[in-house]
Model the fold of this input.
Amino acid sequence: MSQSALTISGVDKFYGPIDRGVHAVKNLTMEIGKGEIVALLGSSGCGKTSTLRMIAGFEEVSRGAISVGGRQVHTLPPVKRNVAMAFEGYSLYPPLTVRENMAFALKAARLPKSEVDAKVASIAKLLEIEDILERYPSSISGGQQQRASLGRALIREADLHLLDEPMGQLEPQLRAVLRGRIKHFIKERGLTAILVTHDQTEANALADRIAVMEGGVLQQFDTPDRIKERPANLFTGTFVGEPPMNVFEAYVATAAGRINLKLPDGLSLDYDKDAFSAPVRDQLLSRERVVIGIRPYAVRRSKEGVPARVSANQWLGDQTHIAADFAGGSLVLVEHDRTRLDLGAPINVSIDPKNLHVFDQASGKAISHGMELA
Amino acid sequence: MEHTSLLERILRGIALTLVVIFFMFPIVWIFMMSFQTNETILRIPPQLIFEPTLANYTALITGKLMTAAGTLDIAFMRNLGNSVFLSVTSVAVSLLLGVPAAYAFARHKFRGSEDIAFTLLSFKFAPALLVLLPLTLYFQKLGLANTYIGLIWVYQLICLPLILWIVRGYFEDIPADIEYAYRIGGHSWFATFRKIALPLAGPGIAAAGLLAFIFAWNNFVFALVLASADKQPVTVGALAFITSSGIQYGQISAAIVLSITPTLALALYAQRYLVEGLSLGAVKG
Done:
């Protein structure tokens, strides 16, 4: 990552007049190193595809600058940016076969035919589409079209590979296999790739770093582990992670050397003052209200814990998801064994302060993760 | 396989037959009239059995019209030639101007693009006669009256909006990403237009061209007012058959048969092409 492959600085995207139209991407700044795989993760309409299309040159940059390999490109036409892209809607050329579609992408590079054939063959093998190379796009399934489209992007030698929802149409088994292969392919060739996805499993599996976007704003740009362990704000905390993080509003109170996090319905999480590290404790005590977040994996059932009532119990084959009515909301916990609990059964839950994420009540910004400040 | 009862099939057959008879009758009747003399045509009651004659066609092709009052010179073959020339040239000019314009309107939303497109369409709203009066005066001043260029120009009022709007729809139906995929692969904007957009919109362009050709071919009033005898198309030329000694129904019929033949042939030929084009990409159920 010595050299930057892509630099986005202060980019805004408006659909319609600047400052008055729809503000799709807001003051986006990020830097992607050479050889990195980055996932733009977010829900529909969060600006991730707009960002990708601005990099490709299909959307104008309303404000700010984009550089690829140190070269300013945001005013250049797509043809001069030297980026490859796999489109969400596949966008294969209907009159050409799958083979021709992929070879077509190499045409501008003017390679000898034997080399083109070899490249098509190797990519087709990678994506398991060797048997449909002579077919036309209209006669193959959506998943096959998607792989052909992905192949058309990967076959090129570009400074940047942009993949828009590259595996959305694939069957789960194939997706898992291809993820591994594509990652290996990209890493082996030292390519730089940006993938847009709303599937966090895909982002986690493929990407070196994930950029979480919401409402046109970059929420957090970090490694998958850090995003999971140290979410920068409430949005990232609840968006990333399956099942999602449990979130409750709490009042901070102290009594007899203990810290009480008072939840709705008269419930309270009581901790010894020394259960928190000093900086986290100071932060907690300086506030009246906070939002606490607990990953479902970190919720434990115990005899002395806070009472809750089971509202759903699902065995997924390898883990149990238990939902419980708790503090005026719902709490989800995950256990690895099959748990027999009837609906309405009372349980007690406890939460280790090491697993507590604390967020600012007003801004949603993270205050602390376990024993460390954010 | 669709399941239909016998009754349903019979009723459908009858309905289809009625429709075909209704639409085909005039054409068949005209075709038959074209092989008859005025006397047999005007016989009452009309008869289906007659002795066919090629006199009408001979008269048209030689340009000598025999009437009770003597021999008249008619320029039907020249009119036919004019029709072909005017229609083909007009459609060609319209395609040359209209297809790139349609692409621009479909792909690039610029300020006022909708207004311009609508204005072009609105040319078709105005009654031709309303446009013709001022146009005649202008054309006389400009020296365009009674010229092929002037006529082709005016014919753009017929062809251009039609081609523009139909082809625009076809361009809009092509996903923009297909073109983007080509452009990002290292091709210029113009190459994308030529290699991707044009072939994909091909059937639409053919359909629009065909329609425009038929409209241009059938135009009457522009040529009637703006052209004199030697530049007039068949539609206007047919007036020559209304002679002082009566209406020459036989020759009119023969003229109609000759003048619909090119459009009919074109439509039949293009229809095959159109169906082929439209069914591309529809292989998957």
Observations:
- Residues 246-373 of chain A form a domain with the OB fold (Dihydrolipoamide Acetyltransferase, E2P) fold (CATH 2.40.50.140).
- The CA atoms of residues 50 and 151 of chain A lie 22 Å apart.
